């Protein structure tokens, strides 16, 4: 690749044991219609499959950072930021497939408005139906009440996939499967907070960006297919533990200890009720219903984690 010209976009892909998805993701990245050849960086978070070998064989010009262990999403992306050369950083999950015009449209959008710090596309299911691509920042209301009901009753305040925008619009936070970030904004406010291991890193960054005066924008004309949570589905209970750990960190950081304590208490009560209800349902069905038994296992693991004070050491693997 010729990097004599200034690199405009640096793609960053974080991978852990998703070789097939990673290669498919890179195939789509290299089909992107961009004015200049991009820099592409893969951060491998301690994969035990042949992810790295496959990338080197298929795309020898891709720059690979072998972390040797699972750094988590925030720390892995930060590693890539530090060797990236692009004015814009395009973060793409391995389970996302960019349409050819996606990156170019986001790039044009951000070039046209120098106050945009982050921009994200419309995420789609494999069948072309829309996914939630942006959301309201978590609050006690969103985390303790029925989120689906809030989205139905107050779609302007709590947007979901039913809210269809016709043009690029400022939003509170983006879903981080695909997003473009302006280097200047990162240099001003700082990188991802590495206290987040998995979940809410991009939401925390969006909050900090908006507080610093940068815009966070959703662009419905840019599109990418998202297969949703390949890593999380592999470790259901552990992923849910990370989900709540990140939420408690977010509340403590942005709302204070009182709000975090209220959230913890409400979640603990809800989990207790879930465990009782699902435990009875499992007994009645003699454990033959996989969905009921599986949900009981996940809720029970979460309940025990809360019962022990949400200790470190539980959650997604760090090795």
Automatic annotation (TrEMBL):
Stretch forming the signal peptide: none
Provide this UniProt record's keywords sorted from A to Z: Transferase
- A Gene Ontology MF term for this entry? transferase activity
The record's listing under Gene3D superfamilies reads: Spore Coat Polysaccharide Biosynthesis Protein SpsA, Chain A (3.90.550.10)
> What residue stretches are annotated with the Glycosyltransferase 2-like domain?
10-189
- Pfam families, from UniProt? Glycos_transf_2
The name this protein carries in UniProt is: Putative glycosyltransferase
- In the record, what lineage is assigned to the organism producing the protein? Bacteria, Pseudomonadati, Thermodesulfobacteriota, Desulfomonilia, Desulfomonilales
